[in-house]
Design goal:
Structural class: mainly alpha
Shape: elongated
Number of domains: 2
Distance between the termini: 40 Å
Number of helices: 8
Number of strands: 3
Largest sheet: 3 strands, antiparallel
């Protein structure tokens, strides 16, 4: 078995917080950082290829690798939290709302959906409005972007 070399980055609140206020607190909340004395630390081990990419990206953005890693981790954890909320919200949709939501995300118009499901366009409109409200979205485009973020392949038939 080949051993992969890893580099470790240690993130401390005193190092990260002055550059991005609230970042250390958000990381603590997301992943349960432990506090030692007046500072908070998290150590991440990454492979050498990822480390090299992180260092190049940090240099390009004029940031320390530690700060860039902390920012990326915070964004990823926030996105994961939003994904979990969205999946939970999708489960609250009625079967008909789920069906219409999928067709809407595919880009079908209300009239096309109505014809396909043999219901009135007003009924489709009502289901879309309710689904968007339950998901906390404002538009059909927001719905499509949500499906992209969740990795839902709306362009494929759900029936197998």
């Amino acid at each position: 078995m080949q051993r992969i070399s890893h580099e470790a980055y240690r993130f401390g609140a005193s190092k990260v917080a002055p550059q991005t206020p609230g970042l250390a607190a958000r990381l603590r909340r997301y992943i349960g950082w432990k506090q030692r004395g007046s500072d908070t630390h998290l150590t991440l081990e990454i492979d050498s290829q990822t480390s090299a990419h992180l260092q190049r990206s940090a240099r390009d953005k004029a940031l320390s690798p530690e700060l860039l890693a902390a920012i990326l981790l915070t964004r990823a954890l926030g996105q994961e939290r939003r994904r979990r909320r969205a999946e939970a919200a999708l489960e609250t949709l009625t079967p008909r709302e789920q069906e219409i939501t999928q067709l809407t995300a595919r880009g079908l118009t209300n009239l096309q959906i109505a014809e396909a499901l043999v219901i009135s366009p007003e009924t489709v409109k009502t289901h879309v409005r309710h689904a968007l409200a339950k998901l906390g979205l404002r538009s059909k485009m927001d719905l499509r972007l949500l499906f992209i973020d969740l990795g839902i392949r709306w362009w494929q038939d759900s029936a197998k």
